[in-house]
Amino acid sequence: MAGGTRRTDVHTVPLGVVTGRRDLALTTVVEAGDPGITWAVVSELTDPSAYLRGGELLLTAGVNLPRTTAGLRAYVDAVVGAGISAIGFGVTPVHDTVPAGLAEQCHAHGLPLVSVPRPTPFAAVSQAVGAELEERRLRDLRRLGEAHQALALAVTADTPVERVLRVLAEALGGWALVAPPASSDPAPGGRHATRGAPRDLDPELQELVLRLTLPHGPRSAKARAGADEVFLHTVGSPPDDHGVVLVGRPDPLGITDRAVLRTATALLDLLARTDRGAPPAPGRLLTGLLLDGGVTEEALPLLAELTGGGDTGTYRVLHALPADRGRHTAPAGLPLDTRVLDTAPGTAGLLRAVLADRGDAEHRAGLEQLVLHGWIGALSGPVPPDGLPGADHTAASLLSRARAAGGPLLWGEDTDPFEALLAPEGADVLARGVLGPLADDTEPARLLRRTLHAWLTRHGNWDRAAADLGAHRNSVRYRIGRIERDLGVDLADAEQRMRLWFALTRRRPGG
Q: How many other C-beta atoms lie within 10 A of the C-beta of residue 447?
């Protein structure tokens, strides 16, 4: 069935939600399931497939619609091959009714077809789809925030593993369990499970658990078990204190579901690396850093103890990666005077750590030591505990530059020269002069600034910028074209792009 495969890599709105809106007055001509719609696009091309990404509600008035059966078959073949979810056909002025031949071909291909009456402009359909998508995106963000807060509280419970699993299962609407390695001897407390989890794993799942806990096996897998789709991920460090988390539910995981699962898996991984029965102190600190937006007051003495910080009161965040595919020292063997460190699963070996501030000279020497151990690192500037989330982002950004430069970087030694030349007020004046109408504090101006920032960040890549913005690539093209017209610039000119980047990054909000 065309459009029958539900996309989980992007936000979608069910077709039935769009056709159910009374203000649009759409009529279903060919019913073929209720596929998810990623966007609504208008095209009168004889073959629009080259301009489609899949999942669209294709709107057409049939201006260039083929008249012959063979032509209609080729048209529907092409758009089905592009992966669209449905066709919306606008009746009058070209066609008084939906062509019977088109309906026949859509029915043969299992492609939903709806009729758009003349009083309903295509723009209204597009706006309705966009509004529904935005509502779902905001709903998912709220759900993600609530799940993260619940998970952050879960790791402080007396039985943190059980609490994390319970929050995970409730957030995903399924069941969850942590299974010990299939090769280990059963031990009390080795298996944790929520309500609804299978008591015994079927042979296929047992085989996957075994493979995932081998020293050089994969870290994650997906399987079907009965009515449920099951997601598996290794937690802990083989051969000790490790196992596999399994999550099952009938439906595939969407974007927000996968984000919740990643967070829960990271927390379970941290819990598996701590002494059984003891609250995971580094895990609590990292949870505060990454989820709560800062370290709590009661954790400050613990942070100082774990980093050897004493009474310094300031800390730095380190991000590091193996320098190449050659040999490198394991994280536990690195000369880092801290116990607040973590290697995040699925990040190509990324090491994150919180270090007590010991001055630029000592930290520069420490970064050079990491190079000798096969690692390339980037270190933020010194910050108080409540500045750790920002320092975490700084180190991540700096690591990208360090990898490109082929050597470690220390924040502060590579400050932006523009900041030394211009006071913030002067930079803001220049920025607003360059941005012109884009500097206004209006919603249209803010939308254009966000679009330009995303487009410049992605070096003019339409698809990646559109994905960052949650918009269609054609919308990004339209906005960039409007920016060029409004500012009288040619964004193919590197000089113009440089000036606009300067202005975007130095405009003072609300100034």
A: 15
Residue for token pair 């004889």: 46
Q: For tokens 């699993």, what's the residue?
A: 165
Contact indicator for 280, 360 with CB cutoff of 8 Å: no
The 228-237 sheet, strands edge to edge: 192-193, 175-179, 240-249, 228-237, 220-225
pLDDT digits (tens, 9 = 90+) for 241-265: 578 899 999 988 888 898 888 888 8
Buried b (16+ CB within 10 A) or exposed e, 27-46: eebbebbbbbbbbbbbbeee
**Sign of CA pseudo-dihedral 365, 370, 372, 375:** negative
β-strand 56-60 against 86-90: which pairing, if any?
parallel
Q: What is the DSSP code (8-state) at residue 250?
A: S
Q: Check: CB of residue 236 under 8 Å from CB of residue 243.
A: yes
- Structural tokens at position 304: 């100082």
Residue-wise pLDDT tens digits, 402-427: 775 678 888 765 445 454 445 445 66
Count of other CB atoms within 10 angstroms of residue 176: 28
Taking the model in full, what pTM does it have?
A: 0.51
Do 452 and 480 contact (CB within 8 A), yes or no? yes
174 token code pair: 């399924």
Contact (Cβ atoms closer than 8 angstroms) between residue 16 and residue 129 = no
Q: Which residue has the tokens 């709903």?
A: 139
CA 449 to CA 435: how far, in whole Å? Answer: 9
